[in-house]
Each structure stands twice: as C-alpha cells, then as structure tokens.
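Let's practice the habit of predicting before peeking. Look at the sequence and jot down your guess about where helices and strands might fall. Then scroll down.
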Amino acid sequence: MKAWASRGAEALLTLWLLATLCFVLLRAAPGGPFDAEKAAPPEVEAALAAQYRLDQSLPMQYLHWLADVARGDLGPSFQYPDYTVNELLAASLPITVVNGGLALLLALGLGLPLGVWAALRAGRWTDRLLMFGAGLGLSVPKFVVAPLLVLLFAVTLQWLPAGGWDGSWRSMVLPVIALALPNLAYCARLTRASLLEVLDADYLRAARGRGLSGARLLFMHALRPGLLPVVAWLSPALINVVSGSAVVEQVFGIPGIGRYFVQGALNRDYTLVLGVVLVVGAAIVLINALVDWLRSRMDPRLRDSV
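Done guessing? Here is the structure:
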C-alpha cells in the first residue's frame, strides 16, 4: 500500500513538473494566441487579454491556471471560443483511444505470432524475409507511411476514404494501419529475439533432452518468460501510439487529441496545448503503472519492487 501511495505522489509531482515546464515554454515562444496579419483595435485586444487573463503577470496567470486545473477546469480554448478545453478533449479523446487501441491490438495480434514463427524457423529464408520486412517497417516514418497508404488504397484502388472521420470501420482502417506498422515490426523482432534466448536456456535444453514435444516446450515453458520483454515494451509502445497520433490524425484529418495538439501549438492556444499535455501525461503515468503491475503478475521476482 505504501509503495502505491509513493507512486501516486511521484505521479502527481511528475504531472505538475510537466505542466509547469510546458506552461513556461509556451509563454516563452514568440507570438500569441490572437496575433494576426491585421492587428485588432487596441480596445479589442485589451478586452481579449482581460477575458483570458493575459493582462495579468505571468506568475498570476500560472497560479490562476493551476487553481482551475485543481478543480478539473482546463479553461476556455483561445482558438475555439465556443468550446472549453474539457469539451474539446471529451469529444476527441475517445477517437484517439479507439484508433490507438485498435492499432496496438493489431500490432500485438500479428507481431507476436510472426515473432514466434520466425524464432522457430531461425536462420531460414522465411525468417530472414520476415526480419527484413520488420526492419523496413521500422525504418519508414509514419508521415511517409500514411500518405503512401492514402495514395494506394484511396486514390489508386479507391477502396477506402482518403481522410475524415465518421466513426465507421472504413474511416478507421488506414489510420490504424499507419499507427500499427512500426509497433508491429518492433513487436515481431522483439518476440523473436526474446524467444530465441529463452529456447537456448539450459533448463529448456534439459527438458528437450527428456523428450518433451516442441509444442509443449513452447507453450508450457518458453512462451511466458519469452513474452516478459514484450510486456515491458508495452509502455513505450503505447507512448509511441499516442505520440504518433499527432502525425496520423493530421494527415487523415481526424479530430483526435493529436490533431488538436498540433493545431493548438501552431495557433498558440495555450490552454488547449496544456490540457492535451496533462491528459497525455496522466495516460502515460497510468500506462506505466499498469504495465509494471502486469509484469509483476507474470514474474514473481518483480513483485517486491512494484
């Protein structure tokens, strides 16, 4: 219980430091949320500054914002005046979660069996071909993969829409594939490497010498320890999905938190960017805690440290 309380305090401290650093960096960046090619009349600028507390000193702005966040109020959006940041995130977060969750499931659903299959055929041409494809998937960035998918499946074959979001499976296919490909490739490579190391362990050699079948060796003795590195990788994989959503959602025009983050940063929408940072930071902290708990359930040696 004390360990979890300590981790909770560390999580709150981490989120506070993250939000404070982001607040300072946003204010230090050149430009402002209401800068435009044609300057507004001074009285209009003064009214906007007063409405959004921009006429106050920087420490006072920070304290007011921090007090609002403590009450669960992320403030009004500067660029979307008809919406609060809470409303924008409530509408966009489920979209990002659905796409990211499906992308991770696709990466695990294909990466794990492909990695196991490659490990069992290590050194053969099929193994080399699979690892070459995995290396290619890791080397091509998302901002290249996403337009290529649009060009092939939307423009050339006209099977799927090029962008937009209507909640249907057709609008999910290309974004999910673009998000999943790098993680799928890494999952396959990691599973293969980890399983090869486990299969070469002394206790498995002894079990093999006692005449145990290959299937029993794999499923009863090798698979669980072989998957421990994959479970540990889930945390950076989920973070990769969250960070990659900014690129993928921008390319496909999906109204998720990644797209709002990019637009908010470009438009100096301070409250929107800070709201996205807090939500993503809290998600990362929660993901790390869940992955650590799952690892401790799979490996009793880690339970004292969690």
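How did you do? The CA atoms of residues 231 and 295 lie 7 Å apart.
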